[in-house]
Design brief:
about 50 residues, alpha+beta, two-stranded antiparallel ribbon, 1 helix
Amino acid sequence: MPNCQNCESFVTERYVRVFTPEQFDRPRVCPNCEDKLREGAEIREARSTRG
């Protein structure tokens, strides 16, 4: 079962397939991350907490 590299939350295989480059098996950030988020192909610090 894949986990997020940032927060260690479970992510589905489908999420990994869509949001992770082919050479990686774990996403760098996921929807559960409160401190980082995806912006295009980049990862950035969140400006505010999500909740």
